[in-house]
Amino acid sequence: DADVTQTPRNRITKTGKRIMLECSQTKGHDRMYWYRQDPGLGLRLIYYSFDVKDINKGEISDGYSVSRQAQAKFSLSLESAIPNQTALYFCATSDPQGQGVSDTQYFGPGTRLTVL
Amino acid sequence: TQLLEQSPQFLSIQEGENLTVYCNSSSVFSSLQWYRQEPGEGPVLLVTVVTGGEVKKLKRLTFQFGDARKDSSLHITAAQPGDTGLYLCAGRSWGNTGKLIFGQGTTLQVKP
């Protein structure tokens, strides 16, 4: 079974709808992240959480919110979806090694979201 | 704002050719990672370089971290169709923040 799972894998919705993307992990990591990927722009950080009580904005958090329900679960919400939020969304986890200089991020398979 | 510029963005070559992908920034990073992503999947870590000037080899892939810790390169020798994918570099800022800054990615296609 995959260590980091995302649901749904694909979603088509309409402008103005509320959408929730879910992420679950079995790696036992405290740190979780949400990224979006757009062609030619790489991965951009939306939100991150270093433990259940810690939530931080990334570089593109406007229009998004998150909830860390448990160590293993981190969900991303679009309160009122708009077409420019059409993208591939990835959840990731990491386990800091020492000062965190070299810790690996483990990514889920992604959710392809289309907002019409 | 820290930026990582990756070049080229697209590369299409024949099997057996060599190639180099570059990752450049004006910022200094504590470490730099290279990830590979295949269609329908998330990125997977290939390597982490930590020390300025460090060179790491992974079979036919050679990774180098610049002396000033601002740039990195990925060289593939005798590319194979299985090397096809999206290659992403990611720099980590100083301090234990855990956040990565990703480059735009290089799409590599290796034709048989």
How would the blueprint of this fold be written?
The complex is a heterodimer of chains A (116) and B (112).
Chain A: E1 4-7, E2 10-13, E3 19-25, E4 31-38, E5 42-51, E6 54-57, E7 65-70, E8 73-78, E9 87-94, E10 105-107, E11 111-115
Parallel strand pairs in A: 2-11
Antiparallel strand pairs in A: 1-3, 3-8, 4-5, 4-9, 5-6, 7-8, 9-10, 9-11
Chain B: E1 5-7, E2 10-14, E3 19-24, E4 31-37, E5 44-49, E6 55-58, E7 61-65, E8 71-76, E9 85-92, E10 100-102, E11 106-111
Parallel strand pairs in B: 2-11
Antiparallel strand pairs in B: 1-3, 3-8, 4-5, 4-9, 6-7, 7-8, 9-10, 9-11
What does this structure look like?
- The complex is a heterodimer of chains A (116) and B (112).
- Helices cover 0% and strands 56% of the residues of chain A.
- Chain A is mainly beta.
- In chain A, a hairpin with a 2-residue loop joins strand 7 (65-70) and strand 8.
- By secondary structure, chain B is mainly beta.
- Chain B has no helices and 11 strands.
- Chain B has strands at 5-7, 10-14, 19-24, 31-37, 44-49, 55-58, 61-65, 71-76, 85-92, 100-102, 106-111.
- The model of chain B has no long low-confidence stretch (mean pLDDT 93).
- The interface between A and B is medium-sized, with 28 and 27 residues.
